Amino acid sequence: MEAVSGALIGGRYQLVELIGQGGMGRVWRGRDKALERDVAVKEVLLPQGLTSGERDHFLQRVAREARAAARLNHPGIITVHDVVEHEGAPVIVMELVTGTSLGALIAQDGALPVQRVAEIGAAMLKALQLAHAAGIIHRDLKPDNVLLMGDRVIITDFGIAHMADATTALTRTGAVIGTPAYMSPEQLEGKPPAPAGDLWSLGATLYSAVEGAPAFHGDTFSALVIAVVTKEPRPPVRAGALQPLLAALMTKDPARRPTAEQALSALDEVARTGAAVLAPIPTPTPTAVVSSAAPAPAGAWLPPQPSHAPSVGGRPPAQSLRPAGPGLHFQPTAAAGAPTGARAGSAVSPFGAVVLRFIGCMALLWAIGSVLPWNYLDTVPSEFLPTVLAITGAFSLINAVPRPRWHPAVAWLVFVLFDLALYFAVKQVVVPALFHGETETGLSEVPSEMVINLLLYGTGAWLLWWKIPGSRST
């Protein structure tokens, strides 16, 4: 669909002017001819080259997500009025918000005041709590999807976020839709969506608002993804009282992040007083124990933290966070009977090494198949999923068997060449012989992209062989 100004959509909504454009489509100012009111009309762009069946599936997905969004009734969530089809493409009709986006405000004014950012964050979090209670995860929360109109803070594109996955699956080689700087590490790794992912994106959005720039930077798409998944955010310089909460929200492990209720309490406190609820504490020494001071109040947030993690690359361990309170310290307790001072993984049985390498190879293959934009392993049609699991499992098991004690450089070359030959044999010989018809591997079939996939996978399998004790046969 290539709508133009003046077009009548669904026999009711007339397009007036184009007011925005992004990866998922274009937004028009429109006029509802039936109710004589202004509306926003979201023109969802269809991927190129879809079959009729894929097009129907995409349209059904859009309608389903729009209906889910329409059930969310909250001043902090943009209202969805209608979803219609125009010239074979979906169109979503929403309330027209005349304010500016948080992204545009940051671009115009730079870093915003700490208490104002806390107010915006608290309003966003209340809207997210309602959505999460309804079982809806946004998955594309970022400054451009936050609109400011008077006293209202409005999250938009609920009902659009899930369609990014559908688009990527249908186009096979389609680019990831979204901004990696605001996507949680687990989302970039292809794990199932959860409320904790939206909380990470909330932290990244507020970081950008209070610092005037995103927490992560990369010169390329891949570099940015790697930074989000593996590196710590840039140390903030303007966050002030928000710093402890932002660090906690952007913790890599979803289980270590604060809950929505805890984060909302902290944001309300910063917005009201400008003082942080959470305060950093020094990394405890190996002999540190819980202080004898008064116990933490019920519901107090004591996020887990490493007791004496080694430095990486010369950097000290990340600062820990705790609620403010005199003498309150937290340290995880070691499991009963756990050895102390021993190097983890110093004694691994041959079978244990195979299991570790199999798990590592399987995880690596699914990460490559889900994160790289030309692959679609995490969104293959359900009817092909058993086949894909069998193929990836066999591929990983073969790579998990012990290898001779070669020189590491020779071993790397052998791993990469072996995996190239193995994938070619599986794709061209084994799959046609076993399945006698159309099936899926979830990986791109473009030669250059296939080589990149297998270079990354072979290198990862080689690292597992090199680093896991018991991986090299005598």
What does this structure look like?
- The structure is a single chain.
- The chain folds into three domains: 8-95, Phosphorylase Kinase, domain 1 (2-Layer Sandwich), CATH 3.30.200; 100-283 and 319-323, Transferase(Phosphotransferase), domain 1 (Orthogonal Bundle), CATH 1.10.510.10; 350-473, no CATH class.
- The strands form four sheets. It has a six-stranded antiparallel sheet with strand order 1-2-3-4-6-5, covered by helices on one side. A three-stranded antiparallel sheet has the order 7-8-9.
- It has helices at 52-70, 102-109, 114-133, 163-171, 185-188, 195-211, 221-230, 243-249, 260-273, 350-371, 385-400, 408-435, 447-467, and strands spanning 8-9, 13-22, 25-32, 37-44, 80-86, 89-95, 100-101, 146-149, 152-155, 278-281, 320-323, 403-404, 472-473.
- It is built from 13 helices and 13 strands.
- Mean pLDDT is 77; it is low at 163-177 and 278-347.
- Helix 3 packs antiparallel against helix 6, helix 10 (350-371) packs across helix 11 and helix 12 (408-435) packs across helix 13.
